């Protein structure tokens, strides 16, 4: 009897882990497909030669930020809107780095965990979005302008 209980518990544990993996993979699939399409579009337009990273950035319009170097070796970001739309290319040489943006945004903040730092295009131009959780477990967003490092917008204590 004890062996049956062990077998059933083991099987249910295995089933739970398998279901969690399926949910995670299925949940990330739309993002993966959008990122792949954006990378293909950037490569087809010969905007970047070496792609370092790509991720989805959401504001009023969802876009994919593709960061890499062009044929001359200059670091650039290409903002690819979802669906059809004009690609925007921004040189990152001399711009605020992700580390600098985090240092500017998080100075004198009570941080528990940094969730992400993403570059995206807003009405003011390219911005770094820093999302973090404070020690009171509240979600916060700070937007730093990539051109000069000034704080553009803050959404605090969600």
UniProtKB/TrEMBL annotation:
Keywords assigned by UniProt, alphabetized: Membrane, Transmembrane, Transmembrane helix
Domain Cell wall elongation regulator TseB-like: 37-81
Domain of life of the source: Bacteria
Alphabetized Gene3D superfamilies for the sequence: 3.10.450.40
SUPFAM superfamilies xref list: Cystatin/monellin
Membrane spanning residue stretches: 6-27
InterPro entries: Cystatin_sf, TseB-like_dom
The protein's name: DUF5590 domain-containing protein
Upper taxonomic lineage: Bacteria, Bacillati, Bacillota, Bacilli, Bacillales
């Amino acid at each position: 009897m004890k062996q049956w209980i062990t077998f059933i518990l083991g099987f249910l544990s295995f089933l739970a882990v398998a279901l969690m993996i399926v949910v995670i993979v299925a949940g990330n699939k739309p993002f993966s497909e959008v990122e792949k399409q954006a990378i293909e579009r950037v490569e087809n337009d010969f905007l970047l030669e070496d792609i370092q990273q790509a991720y989805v950035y959401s504001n009023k319009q969802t876009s994919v930020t593709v960061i890499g170097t062009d044929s001359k070796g200059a670091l650039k970001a290409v903002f690819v809107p979802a669906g059809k739309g004009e690609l925007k290319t921004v040189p990152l040489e001399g711009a605020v780095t992700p580390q600098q943006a985090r240092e500017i945004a998080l100075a004198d903040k009570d941080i528990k965990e940094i969730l992400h730092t993403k570059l995206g295009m807003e009405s003011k131009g390219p911005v770094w979005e820093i999302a973090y959780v404070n020690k009171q477990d509240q979600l916060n967003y700070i937007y730093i302008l990539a051109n000069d490092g000034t704080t553009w917008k803050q959404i605090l204590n969600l």
